[in-house]
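Hi C.,

You asked whether I'd gotten around to modeling the 208-residue construct. I have! Everything is below, sequence then structure, no commentary in between.
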Amino acid sequence: MAIVFITGSTDGLRSIADQVNAKGRMDAIIHNAGVYSERSRGSTPEGHVGTLAVNTLAPYMLTALIERPSRLVYLSSGLHRGGEGSLSDLDWTKRTWDPAKAYAESKLHVVALAFALARRWPQVLSNAVDPGWARTRMGGPGAPVDLDTGQRTQTWLAVSDEPAALVSGCYWHHLRQDQPASEVIDQGFQGQLISKLGELTGVALPES
């Protein structure tokens, strides 16, 4: 089962986690929500920048609070490769707002989270997917990737029993493994990111 969410509120995320846990353990969860090109920094009730809250803090919190499924899939973007150097100012309190950079950073975060979880929770298959520029409400009607192609990889990773799908700690694009940004596979970066997300949310990511 895949859970689709979009909220930047801590209380809202805790409520979602409680509702999911009340239904019982999920087989698979696809973290698919995202915002792009926010004109201003914005602010959640907790004071976090909107792009960070939805694209990074939400999947982190839900991952930490929902009972561990067998499979986790995080939707990222090829643009994550432009998200380097974000850890010094995750919440954009010191820098001039740059919506494209903020989006790239948030997508770098979720790939790094997926890779970190593959190491921390070896019993869970954790992967990240670049679906391409798809014709969704976000992508617009002129995007080159149709909806079927855009959803195929994450669906396959969530349900397939093919040996190729039963892997963890990989970055995927159109059913093929791809090379992510170098920071993603840096265990030091992964650890720093998880520590900072824990500080920002007040939610600790469980150990194995």
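If it helps when you're writing up: The CA atoms of residues 56 and 106 lie 5 Å apart.

Thanks,
B.
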